[in-house]
């Protein structure tokens, strides 16, 4: 599969089998995430890897769009560490790039994943920070439930000519 095929065929997966994810795959996902670009190469991210079923079930209650975490084999919380920023405020972009790298790596490895948003919703941030015992300087951006896919949605192009502007709007 080419890089463009990988990008164009990745879909959000919310149903998983019970097959466990090998530790070396988890390492590959995190390594891909940490290869993301970051402002000033600050790499202001922290990752919480969730493998305990009971904690995944608790995570599934963070907000209504993360319920699939209860049936996932793994969850990875992507966080911005404000103490590691070189350029304040850019942690959101940096961590979003890390999350996208991780989702693409999951797809390349045959895993299914979905990005569930936490930041900037204050209630989600507070609930997540408490559940995962995050230090004050660490802000949760998003939680990705992962597993071997038990669904196979098809991809269609999302290219929209009406959203493209050359040189000026």
CATH topology: NADH Oxidase
Give me the strand/helix succession. Answer: HHEHEHEEHE
pLDDT < 50 runs, ≥5 residues? none
- The counted number of beta strands is 5
Question: What class, by secondary structure content?
Answer: alpha+beta
Q: Report the span from N to C terminus.
A: 35 Å
Radius of gyration: 16 Å
For the sheet with most strands, the description reads: 5 strands, antiparallel
CATH architecture label: 3-Layer(aba) Sandwich
| Mean pLDDT across residues | 97
By CATH reckoning, the class would read: Alpha Beta
Work out the strand percent: 15-25%
InterPro entries: Nitroreductase (IPR029479), Nitroreductase-like (IPR000415), Nitroreductase/BluB (IPR050627)
Domain Nitroreductase: 7-59, 82-148
Protein name: Putative NADH dehydrogenase/NAD(P)H nitroreductase
GO molecular function: oxidoreductase activity
